[in-house]
Amino acid sequence: MTGHDSSSFQQHSLSRLGVVILAAGASSRMGQPKLLLTWNTTTVLGHLIGQWQSLDARQIAVVCSADDKIVDGELDRLGFPCANRIPNPEPDRGMFSSIQSAARWRGWAGPLTHWAIVLGDQPHLRLETLRALLGFAALHSDRICQPARNGHPRHPVVLPKAIFERLKDSSEGTLQQFLRNHAAAVALCELDDSGLDLDLDTPADYAEALRRFQASSDGATTARRE
Fold first, then answer.
1. What CATH architecture applies to the domain 6-225?
2. Under a CB-based contact definition with an 8 Å cutoff, are residues 45 and 111 in contact?
């Protein structure tokens, strides 16, 4: 897909969306749990949950290490239900083990049609970027949909049910390998959000993400006043 005005897809939406927030990472380069970093009036984790609630996700689940008391405590503080917490018994196997834990989980409720795989280190993505991605996925409902920037696939990834369920028994070692092996089913939505190129891996990344988020928030406030 070529470049798009993000507003062109926002009239469409996914009404039966499940969201997987990945929160089992070690945050070794950050030096502290990145999901618990301050973000706006809450934490990164609290912001991500609120963001996807505002996007009308049917169900949101958080994947965390089975013995991670810190993230579990933050979820308690946020009032996030225990029923929507997915334990990953093998987080040392990397991100794909969390994705497979979500695909194998039996707690998904209702007739969901799509799942968004959400990284724990992109709280700075603009809401209109996510709305555009979901609208794009609604128009390409049988495809794996990813945002792209300058032709490079980015996150989050939205998968239809038939492909999400293949993750359970996938022999691939990473999500990248899985997507490469399903390349014919991938549709890229080119979006103009520089935040797609940034992950929160280091303290410098965190500072830059906060700067961008504040700038976009100030811009949105000014636009509403005008």
1. Alpha-Beta Complex (3.90)
2. no
